């Protein structure tokens, strides 16, 4: 399989994961699937296969910006990097779902959180933590 096709498959898997996550808010079956983190696990396994199994070498490293840029000139490394983002963002979204339901945070507040987590992961994570902090202070629950 070529890296381009693998990247497309990973993108589709992530989209299915995010749809499952949103439906999981309302459906116990989908909630269990989300909590099991099946798609992040699949993506993580794919990532591991690329990094360990294929061991693409592009001559770069993580010690400088130039080294990182050199790493990502290899299509397999770029694919692995993208799958890394997809897996972690979806895992964070799954955690947000479980945590928000437990804390009584509304579905409507979670929609922009999940959108940002999907598109620009750390910003969605940050927004969720801010909402969680505000909600905790307003209800007196500081965990």
Could you characterize the architecture of this molecule?
- This protein has 143 residues and is mainly α.
- It has one domain (3-105).
- The protein contains seven helices and no strands.
- It is globular and about 50 Å long.
What's the rounded overall pLDDT mean?
Answer: 90
Counting DSSP H or I runs of 4 or more residues, the number of helices is 7
Residue share in helix? over 70%
- SSE succession: HHHHHHH
Largest sheet: none
Morphology call: globular
C-alpha end-to-end distance: 46 Å
If you compute it from the alpha carbons, what radius of gyration comes out, rounded to the nearest whole angstrom?
Answer: 17 Å
Low-confidence stretches: none
Q: Please report which band the strand proportion falls in: under 5%, 5-15%, 15-25%, 25-35%, 35-45% or over 45%.
A: under 5%
Q: How many domain units?
A: 1
Task: Please state the structural category.
Answer: mainly alpha
Counted beta strands: 0
Give a quick rundown of the structure:
81% of the residues lie in helices and 0% in strands. It has 7 helices and no strands. The longest helix has 29 residues.
Features:
143 residues; 7 helices
Fold blueprint:
Blueprint: H1 3-24, H2 28-36, H3 38-54, H4 65-71, H5 75-103, H6 107-119, H7 121-139
Helix pairs in contact: 1-2, 1-3, 1-5, 3-5, 5-6, 5-7, 6-7
């Amino acid at each position: 399989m070529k890296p381009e096709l693998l990247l497309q498959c990973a993108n589709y898997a992530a989209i299915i994961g995010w749809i499952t996550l949103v439906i999981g808010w309302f459906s116990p079956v989908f909630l269990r699937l989300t909590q099991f983190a099946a798609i992040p696990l699949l993506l993580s396994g794919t990532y591991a296969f690329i990094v360990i199994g294929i061991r693409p070498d592009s001559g770069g490293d993580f010690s400088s910006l130039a080294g990182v840029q050199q790493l990502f000139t290899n299509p397999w490394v770029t694919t692995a990097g993208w799958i890394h983002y997809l897996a972690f963002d979806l895992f964070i979204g799954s955690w947000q779902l479980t945590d928000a339901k437990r804390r009584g945070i509304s579905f409507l507040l979670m929609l922009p959180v999940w959108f940002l987590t999907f598109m620009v992961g750390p910003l969605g994570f940050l927004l969720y933590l801010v909402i969680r902090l505000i909600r905790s202070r307003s209800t007196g629950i500081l965990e």
